[in-house]
Every structure is written in structure tokens, then in C-alpha cells.
Amino acid sequence: MLTAEKNARLTQVGAETPGGQLLRRYWHALWPACDFSAERPKMRLKVMGEDLVVYRGADGSYGCVAEHCTHRGCSLYYGFLEGSAIRCAYHGWKFERDGRCVEQPFEPAGSTYKDRSRQRAYPVEELGGLLFVYMGPLPAPLLPRWDTLVRKDGRRLVQIRPTLSCNWLQAQENTADTTHTYYLHGHMMVKKGLASEGSAYYYRPILSYDFQLCEWGIEKKLVYGGEFPEEEIRPPLIFPNILRIPEGRTERQHWRVPIDDTSTRIILISFTPNATGEDEPPQTVVPMEVVPDDKRPDGEYALDTFSSQDRMAWETQGAIFDRSQEHLGATDAGIILYRKLLDEQIAIVEAGGEPMGVLRDPARNQMISFTSHSINRLQPVR
Amino acid sequence: MLSAEKNARLTQVGPGTPGGELLRRYWHALWPASEFTAEKPKKRMTVLSEDLVVYRAEDGTFGCVAEHCTHRGCSLYYGFLEGNAIRCAYHGWKFAPDGACLEQPFEPEGSTYKDRVRQRAYPVQELGGMLFVYMGPLPAPLLPRWDTLVRNDGKRWIQIRPTLNCNWLQSQENTADTTHTYYLHGHTMLVKGISNAGADYYRRPIASYDFRLCEWGIEKRCFYATPDGLEEEVRPPLIFPNILRINEGRKEFQHWRTPINDTSTRVLVAWFEPNDTGKDQPQPAVIPLQFMQDDIGPDGEHTLETFNSQDRMAWETQGAIVDRTQEHLGATDAGVVMLRKLLDEQIAIVEAGGEPMAVLRDPAKNEIIAFTSHSINLLASARA
After folding, report:
1. Is residue A375 scored above 90 in pLDDT?
2. At what angle do helices B334-351 and B168-175 cross, to 10 degrees?
3. Which domains are seen in chain B, by residue range?
4. Residue of B72, B111, B116, B119 for testing the chain A interface, max A β-carbons within 10 Å
5. Residue A228 — very low, low, confident or very high, per pLDDT cuts 50/70/90?
6. Contact A313/B90, CB-based, under 8 Å?
7. Local structure of residue A352 (DSSP, 8 states)
8. What domains sit in chain A, N to C, each tagged with a CATH number?
9. What pLDDT digit, counting tens, does each position of A86-142 carry?
């Protein structure tokens, strides 16, 4: 149970909030690169409460600026792209990708006003077909080279899930919540008559669970009993807002990117290794898929997929779950650990320090990989 | 005219508000029982600003719990029904209909944690095909056995009206407002060119009106001036706090104005049409149900073609919560003034720890609560 103040501290994402300041120390998944083309080079995207325009410049590079022109607020989404710069459609102020104002038409000759005007702008990088943005203080840290983005021995797909109508932390707490899978997924699928090997995996009694801090976030251990006992080996919860999870041989990584305090974009990469383990020629275009809304026409959650079940649980907790009303148990130890970690890391940023999981050493960023096994091992005990 | 504070006191319905605490001393009409089936046994409902899940359990009994699981807030609407209990879909916490926590899967063996948590839960009872909920301090009083729900000498049906986009008190004040019927119903029908016996009834000069307190609420008297002299209207009283009883010809009906929240109100109606013999007749296992169509036109306007639409226009256009600091009451509003005074007094009784009026605890007084009415019948017979 949290106080209302602590709940706000952990959940708010705006630029001036403690939580928002912490989140701005990390690169955030923005959108698939393949969705920007010469015909449609600009997109409006809101991230952490800030309205942004992301564009592929005429020179092929990417830019990201605050949507509203610093001059008189017109949307730069309707601006003109020139080289790597963007020019406002209203009065023609022109901004470089780093936010510098390079032209202010019809201002007096010799005016230095433009040298004193800046558009808010953020670095964008592409990796594995996905664009990332960094909205914190410069210099930006390294963009982490997750294995799902840099491995070459297979194929990659980017998916955009239906936007969550709730705060990002509800989704992320679920990743530290190992026991929810029995009822929400295992039991639900049985009740719906949709039991499969995937749901049977989760429909096993949980004998023990345990959580430990690690370099990247929280390591989770879980032991299943019943007819198919086994210890589950999973990648950790990646701080602050990433889920890594296997499904069969496919490795998935979910970024829960706050749009604002009460909505969350879920971008996920699936990497499916080939059978040989040999590197392949890179995909020229990493394909993307926008997953259709999984609510039924009557507005109800279908509950026939793990995603729909999770979404129901997270969204029905409320737009921002009121944690002053909850009653946590021993099974929630991972959630408590995660909230404590989040609170501590916010405090580090408040004290002017650098929080965990921020990379600055290229030697440590060749490739960040994790192993998982368990779903593959579901078979009777010999 | 009321102060803003007094207006809030009389209109707010949430837990912890003076008005909400009074309303929680009464059983409230919830929904028709027949709407809960094996295929669709659960329903989300907001009552008195509380989000609830109402369910028909596997054993046929009804349960009502707060929607959000006390563990981590997931909606119990998506829970699993087991026996008479409901199990949260997220982590499997299982709750009895009284809110006791029966299971907390994967908590340590021997843990007594479940004995220390409760889900908010409220008693539900069925009568005459209607479900009622009681959301106040226990023990619950008796569910009043209104004649419309327990008479068997005729047929019964239930109607669900379009939800009112306004505070409940606006509709209830209307029940203490005898003289509105001349213009809002009688005259509107005339202007619209709609022929209607009820409108003819109301379109007669009102010679006098008066109001007095009674056991159930407020007794209303009204005399119409007719060519044959005065005709007295005999009607059931306004039933405190939120019930209207009225007749239409021989049909008796009863409206429950159940607050959804401060600014919307569910209207549930039980109809009873007596047979000619006065003898009891077999009642169907499932009481018929009628959903009334929304009486707002495609252009968003109140159609004003029915009494319901006319009333709804009047109540909703007063505002989501009418600002009673801006009104100017007249002598005709004596019933409205009396209702507010009564409501204020009964709120004070609850604040002082007492039991308000019309809360039944004596089964002998609850065999059947019957009222008589006649008036529209008189007009009809005069014409015949």
C-alpha cells in the first residue's frame, strides 16, 4: 500500500515530475523506422506527456522536435523538410535537428535573435528497425544494443499493440508479478475452452517464487510443481520499463512507453532465431504490424489471448491505480521490490546522480543478451 | 432557495457524504433478476457512486461485491464464479458473498492474511422479479414488501427507463410537485396536438393543493375544478426517500430513482395490473421486462411526446445538480419545501446515530404494504 504522494511520485511521467525525470535518463522506443517514407516522412507522437514531431529528413536522417513551434505555437507536423532541418509552415522559422534556429525570415538584417531561440529537440537513433528517442540531459548515454535488436541469426518483426488506457507502471508491475499467470492465463484459458500448451505451462501449481536485484533490474525465480515440475529460467525485468520474455523459440521484448500519465504505447520486437544459428544477411526492412484492437465490438475484453487478459487486468485497475487502496500479499514481493527500486533510482536522479542501467561504456554495449528456457521443457517427468 | 452547502448535503450520494449515508439506510432497486442468466451471470453497476459487480452464482443466489479487487484493483467483473463465491481473474483471490476472503493462492502455507482482508460486499435480495441491494450498516432492515411486488391478483412487469442525466433529487422533488402536471403534461400535449386521456385529466384548473407528512413520506391532496364541482385526487404518498407510486387507470406502478452517482439516476419501474376477479393467479417464473427506448430524438432534443419525455426534459434541463441557490420557490412549491426539510431532518437523525423513517424491522408490519389510489378512474367513469 502506498500513500497518494508516493503513488504520484512513482507514476507521473511529465517533464517536471520526479518519475518523469528518471524516465528521461533512458532511451525510449518510439516507432518502427519502416513507417517513415518519402511520401509520409512525418509523424506526431506523444511521449511522456510531450507532443513531438518525428521526421525522416530529406537526407535520410531522423529528427525529433517539440510539436509546437517556439515562435508562435503552430504545429511543426505541417512544416517543410529541408535537408536535415524542418521549417515551420506559419512564418518559416527553420530548425536544425538539434533544435538550433537557423533562419527567421524577415527579422531585421543582422538580428541575433535566432541565435537566442531554440526549439526543444531530442536525439533519435535507429536500431534493429526501431527508432528510439532520448529526452534527458545531454550527453545522451549509449542506446543499449539488446540482442533482440542486433542478433543476426534470424528474423525480426516490430509490433505495435493496442494503446493501453492506463499508466505504464501497471504494465511494468505485472512483469514483477510471477504468480498472476496461473489464474489470469492458465485458468482463464481452461474456462474459455482455449487451453493450449502455452496456457498449460502456466496452469501448474507454483511451489516457490523469489526475486533478486540484478544489474538490469529484477531477477525472478519460480518453481512449478504438479505433474510437470520445473524451475523457470527467464530474463530479468529490465529497469525501468522493459519486459523480455520467450515464446517458444521466439524472444520478445516489450517497451512500455508512457504516452502520458494515463496511456501507454506498447512496442515489441520479436526475434525468431533460424535453425542453423548462422548469421544471415540483414533484413533491408524490418517489417511492422499494427495489432488490431483486441476489444470486442461491444467494448468488452475478449480474454481469449494472453495480451487481452493482461490488458483487462491492467486497465481495470484504473487509469492510474490508486495504490492507497490495495492489499499486497507475500506473492507481491517482486512488486514491492520493484517499487522500492524505482523510488531509490528517482532519488538518485534527484540527488544529481546517474541511475542504474544507463550505459556509457561501448565495451559493455557490444550486445546485451539473455537466456531463457522453460516453455521448451514442458514435458512429463521421466 | 438553499445555500450551496445545504444543496450539497441533500444531493450528494457518495459514501461518507451526509446524504449518501442516509440513502444507505434503505434497500435500493438494482436490476431485474431475469437479466442474470447462465450465459451472462455478471453485471457491472454503479450505485450511490460505488462501482459494483452483481452476479448470479452457480447455486442461483445473488451476490454483490465492490468491482475492484481489494488485492490489486483488477475488476471482479471478469472473475470466475465458483459456488456462491467469486474469484478474481488476476491472482485468484476468492471471496464469499459476504466479502470474506476464502482463498489467496500461493500465499505462504498457514498464512492468516486472508482472515484479515475483506472485499466490500452488500446483501442482495429478490422480490417480485426485482433485485435490491442494501449498502448500509448491518444488520440490514427488512426489504419492504410493496404491494406492486407481492400482489398476485394480476400481472406484473418491470420496466427500465432511460438513465437520467441529473441528480436523483430532481426527479423526487417532482413527486412532491402536484401542480406541474397542468402545463408540463396537460398543456404540452394540447400544444403538440396529441390526444391523451391522462393529459385531459391533468388539463383541469387546480383549485387547491396541500401536503402533509405521513408514515411513508408525504401525503398529497389536490382538488380539480370541474363543471360538476371539485374532484379530489386520491393518490399514494411520496415514499421516502426516492420512490414514486402512481396509477394509470387500473394499473399501479412504482418508480425507484436509484442514484448511479451525483449526476445520473437509474429509473426502475414495477407495474401491476389487477385482474377482474380479484383472485390470485399463477405468476410466471420470469417476470417480463421492458427496456424503454431513449426518448431523445435523433437531433438530441427531448421529443416531449410522452409524460416521461416531458418529465425528463424538466429534470435534466434543471442541470446535472440543480443550483438551488438560484431558484425562486412559490406557494405551489410547498411540497418541495416539505420534502427537503424532511430529507434534511432524516439526514440529521442518521448523523446523530439514529434510524431514519420508513426503515422496517418488524416482520408483522411487512406482510404487504398497500396503497389505494383513484382519480383517473373517476374521470373515466364520468365520461362513460
Report:
1. no
2. 130
3. 27-134 (2.102.10.10), 147-383 (3.90.380)
4. B72
5. confident
6. yes
7. T
8. 29-134 (2.102.10.10), 147-273+283-377 (3.90.380)
9. 999 999 999 999 999 999 999 999 999 999 999 999 999 999 999 999 999 999 999
